[in-house]
Design brief:
The complex is a heterodimer of chains A (about 425) and B (about 350). Chain A is of the alpha+beta class. In chain A, β5 and β6 form a beta hairpin. In chain A, α5 runs antiparallel to α6, α7 packs antiparallel against α12 and α12 packs parallel to α17. Chain B has one domain. Chain B is built from twelve helices and two strands. Classes of the chains: A alpha+beta (about 425), B mainly alpha (about 350).
Chain lengths: ~425, ~350
């Protein structure tokens, strides 16, 4: 089954696109300004910066003349930490990258290391990972839209989305034992198979989620004030989006049809029938619409995954590289030795360099692993989508109004944990 | 000096302001939290007292006990003056609102002025000084931006607020709020002319400008009270807390309660002008004239009617707040100056033409 592209058209698109490209930032500032400008420090602790982003704004009245984002307040040195631990030990650190979609991070990291090892998961394992990825996508987009709505003043939407996220958290708890820091994957598989009753609950969630999403739709999508706040604000053209290396919904909002699930199908995404929504103008509203539609598509994928869930093993079968079963470790000498060696020395990874990028909720989360053999990477580089997506911020904010800052920040939907790493 | 008037006025002030309006402020804070919780599938405060009714009292005690911190960099005199300037005008405007017909021969209005609406607008517009001063005296950037925004916002909407009332004054031919209510009690509410002289072609036709006035008036009232979707001066997501960022303790509470007091008085004014004040529909229990004595239980029913209507409007304010996003500053100004100002102006002309044609 092939994936298709779904274009989100809103009326008089062509005229708006022309106007948007003509006038970059609807408020043009003149050079001969009278009076002094106000330098405003926004963040690192500010309600609209979603974490610890700091932006130094230069204001002329309410119009922003210069914006200088300052990242790094949440830098923990994740990449350096990775060089000092075995591959499996780094999994919990990936929870804390994009902490709104830890399951998707776990999967992306595991896939990267598996690419280095040359492993491929059995069918059931892949479907389980797909399910967890799409759950993470819904959860992350829900928060993105909720926080976005709250930034433009619609607080109620935020709580509606959180009600739904609560259900997803319950599912995460059922699946992994943790609600937030899931650490679900290991290199070559998952920590456990789907628990009893999980599929039923997931199915129930899928059925209940769409009406809830429609409710959010009715509150925001056609709301005149919301449209005024988001349409033609923070326009990113196709060319700019590519030039700045944006990815995820922000890239697709600008009309670039690029989704790694479709462009470079990993896991078992090629087996599912789903649309890739793309925007037309690249304004804040398009990015909002793309996220809304992606959630619906995620539900479609989940529904298909539930229907076609294969049986069989969930983990790679490799007696030398996977931890043996605990009972057998206690009973037999060979397994005890395997266990000891795997735990002390880690995987026996081949030397080489791999890059794997997964389509995460925020964009392309890539892991570049440089291995010189052995259980520890020589270098692990994380391509954080939030970091790259934020790079266009100075360009976007300039010429807009102070109030648009929150709309634009909300529409970019970044997570500082991932950006600063 | 007539001691009777002074004593009666003092009693009415104490009872109306301290025993009715301020508890109503506290109750509307509670209602806001409970209604917003209901809208958002939450529970809301339900621990202090029955159904959380005493939550506002607990909050008040908390505010009183907090450290009243004045930062070093502020202009102290203005900084201290500002919260009072927000609260006092809101309470002062309540002086001319007729909150009942009469009780034991006393008219249920603190000051029966012949220039009611003018007094309300004159005093209510003073509260903008409180916000401007707070923003300015805080000597800090976010409050400053909040103060600047609120100045322009309130000035823009004051005009349409004032203009939206003009058609009503033309229809009533009267500026005394008590007489206005009495007129509505006898001849149908401005928005519901179904009895008395209102039950005529003239009454029905005049409802059109009155309805336009009502919409403009309510919208401007939202802007005047700085509530969503017009809460730009304090929109928390961009300006942190706007003009009261630097305030704490009871000074902050005064801003906070001032908003609710303004909301209550605004609702009271809307009820008085458009919804027949204390009068019951279809002329039930209407007194003979504005000054006629009524049985005490009639008086109590009238007072109850007035507050029931006010509470209904407050609930309307609350529901709107929790369902709409916020405007952007320039959109708000455009709405005020281009849209509402012209509509209100056109409405005055329309009313004049209608009245000339119907006369």
């Amino acid at each position: 089954m092939a994936t298709t592209t779904k274009e989100l058209e809103i009326q008089d698109t062509a005229a708006r696109a022309a106007a948007a490209s003509e006038l970059e930032g609807y408020q043009q500032t003149t050079d001969d300004l009278v009076g002094e400008k106000l330098t405003l420090n926004m963040g690192p602790s500010h309600p609209a910066t979603h974490g610890v982003l700091r932006i130094v704004l230069e204001l002329d009245g309410e119009v922003i003349t210069k914006a200088d984002p300052d990242v790094g307040y949440l830098h923990r040195g994740d990449e350096k930490i990775a060089e000092n631990m075995q591959y499996n030990q780094f999994v919990p650190y990936t929870d804390r990258l994009d902490y709104l979609a830890p399951l998707a991070n776990n999967v992306a990291y595991a896939l990267a290391v598996e690419k280095l090892m040359g492993w491929e998961l059995p069918a059931r394992g892949q479907t389980i990972r797909t399910i967890s990825c799409e759950m993470a996508r819904i959860s992350a987009h829900l928060l993105g839209i909720g926080a976005y709505a709250m930034d433009v003043g619609a607080m109620t939407v935020f709580l509606y989305t959180f009600t739904q996220r609560e259900t997803i958290y319950n599912l995460c708890e059922l699946l992994t034992g943790a609600r937030f820091t899931t650490s679900f994957t290991r290199v070559g598989g998952q920590i456990r198979d789907l628990p009893e009753g999980f599929i039923d609950q997931l199915d129930k969630f899928c059925d209940e989620f769409i009406p809830a999403l429609d409710e959010i739709d009715t509150l925001l999508t056609r709301n005149k004030i919301f449209l005024d706040r988001t349409r033609d604000i923070g326009v990113i053209s196709k060319e700019e989006a590519i030039a700045w290396g944006l990815s995820g919904p922000n890239l697709r909002g600008s009309g670039v049809e690029h989704d790694l699930r479709k462009a470079n199908p990993y896991l078992d995404y090629r087996n599912y029938d789903f649309d890739i929504p793309v925007g037309t103008i690249g304004d804040c509203y398009d990015r909002y619409l793309v996220r809304m539609e992606e959630m619906r598509q995620s539900v479609r994928i989940l529904k298909q995954a539930i229907k076609n869930l294969p049986d069989g093993p969930i983990n790679v079968v490799d007696s030398k590289q996977k931890l043996p079963q605990k009972e057998r470790v206690l009973m037999s000498m060979e397994e005890l030795i395997h266990h000891f060696i795997l735990v002390t020395e880690g995987l026996d990874a081949p030397a080489g360099e791999v890059y794997f990028g997964a389509e995460n909720p925020k964009g392309e989360l890539g892991f570049y692993i440089h291995s010189k053999g052995g259980g520890v990477p020589y270098r692990l580089k994380i391509r954080a989508p939030s970091f790259v997506n934020l790079s266009i911020l100075p360009k976007l904010l300039e010429g807009n109004m102070m109030s648009d800052t929150v709309a634009i920040l909300g529409s970019l939907d970044f997570v500082m944990g991932e950006c600063d790493r | 000096m007539d001691w009777h008037i002074i004593i009666a006025a003092s009693v009415k002030i104490v009872v109306f302001v301290f025993l009715v309006t301020l508890p109503l402020v506290a109750m509307s804070v509670w209602a806001e939290r409970r209604v917003s919780a209901a809208i958002q599938d939450r529970v809301g405060p339900n621990r202090v007292g029955p159904a959380g009714l005493l939550q506002a009292v607990a909050d008040g005690i908390k505010f009183l006990l907090k450290e009243d911190f004045t930062p070093d960099h502020v202009r102290k005199g203005y900084f201290w003056l500002a919260p009072a300037l927000v609260m006092v005008p809101a309470l002062m405007t309540s002086a001319v609102l007729p909150f009942g017909s009469s009780l034991f021969g006393e008219k249920m209005v603190i000051a029966d002025l012949d220039v009611g609406p003018l007094f309300v607008f004159a005093v209510a517009s003073l509260s903008v000084y409180g916000i401007v001063l707070a923003g300015w005296a805080s000597n800090s950037k976010y409050p400053f931006l909040g103060g600047v925004r609120s100045t322009s916002q309130m000035i823009s909407y004051e005009i349409s607020l004032g203009l939206s009332v003009v058609p009503l004054i033309m229809i009533y031919g009267e500026l005394n709020l008590s007489s206005i209510v009495q007129y509505q009690a006898e001849n149908g509410w401005a928005l519901l002319p179904l009895w008395g002289e209102g039950l005529s072609v003239k009454g029905f036709l005049l409802t059109i400008p009155v309805l336009i006035s009502f919409i403009v008036f309510m919208t401007s009232m939202f802007a005047e009270t700085n509530r969503l979707p017009f809460d730009l001066p304090e929109c928390e997501t961009e300006l942190v807390a706007g003009y009261h960022t630097e305030y704490s303790s009871m000074k902050f509470a005064l801003f906070f309660l001032g908003e609710y007091a303004a909301m209550i008085i605004g609702s009271g004014l809307a009820v008085t002008l458009f919804l027949g004040g204390w009068s019951l529909p279809f002329g039930w229990l209407t007194p003979e004239s504005a000054d006629a004595a009524v049985p005490w239980w009639h008086g109590l029913i009238h007072i109850g009617t007035f507050f029931a209507k006010v509470i209904a409007l407050i609930l309307f304010f609350i529901v709107i707040r929790w369902t709409l996003p916020r405007f952007r500053y320039d959109q708000l100004m455009r709405l005020g100056w281009v849209f509402f100002f012209e509509i209100a102006l056109f409405n005055v002309v329309l009313t004049a033409l209608l009245m000339w044609w119907l006369a």
